[in-house]
Design brief:
By secondary structure, the chain is α+β, with helices and mostly antiparallel strands. It has helices spanning 13-18, 35-42, 55-60, 62-74, 149-159, 168-176, and strands at residues 81-83, 101-103, 109-113, 118-120, 123-125, 131-135. Strand 4 and strand 5 (123-125) form a beta hairpin. The longest helix is centred in the middle third of the chain and has 13 residues, at 62-74.
Length: 189
């Protein structure tokens, strides 16, 4: 089975460049924690997100506000980014601490760039692209990294990520917190 991902940890900068040639069919050793231990806990929904969610309700709930802020930070990176920071609601197993992990989308989620227009006076300013996520729609290109649910679950087991990370409710919550123009369009504030 193909499973393209970054190895569970890297020891030095030289290895980062060596891993650029990592082959998807290379056997991967999961993090020291066994997938079976993670699987049962990871299948439980991380948070209960109300169906009638508003930004005012998010602001009133410290737990939802923290989740939204974490999601906004994580989804601002391009897919396949290597990170060391993990939100507190990811697995607290110590074998995942100080471990590089690669940010991927589940098969039903797409990365998109936030609009870049930013104007200061009459001069347009350039800024680096900031990403966000949305649910996959008809006509979107096929996923590049996580193509099946089985690959997604293996990835979650390897890195201690909840199976419901970037589920439909979390996407709805994060998109509620994105900056918008007066007419409701996403904007690059």
């Amino acid at each position: 089975m193909e499973f393209p991902t970054t190895p569970p940890y890297l020891k030095g900068t030289a290895e980062v460049y060596a891993m650029a040639n990592f082959q998807a069919d290379t056997p991967i050793s999961p993090a020291p924690s066994s997938p079976e231990k993670q699987s049962s806990a990871a299948r439980v929904p991380t948070f209960s997100i109300p169906a009638d969610l508003t930004q005012a309700a998010v602001e009133a709930s410290p737990q939802l506000k923290r989740l939204q802020q974490d999601l906004l930070v994580l989804t601002s990176f391009v897919d396949n980014s290597s990170l060391t920071w993990r939100p507190s609601w990811f697995s607290d197993d110590s074998s995942y601490q100080s471990v590089f992990w690669t940010l991927h989308n589940p098969p039903h989620v797409v990365t998109e760039e936030m609009p870049k227009e930013a104007v200061y006076g009459k001069q347009a300013l350039w800024r680096a692209g900031v990403m966000t996520r949305r649910m996959r729609k008809e006509g979107d290109r096929e996923p590049l990294w996580m193509k099946t649910q089985a690959q997604w679950e293996r990835y979650c087991d390897m890195y201690g990520i909840p199976y419901d990370f970037l589920c439909e409710d979390q996407i709805r919550l994060l998109r509620l917190g994105l900056p918008r123009s007066n007419d409701g369009q996403l904007c690059g504030k």
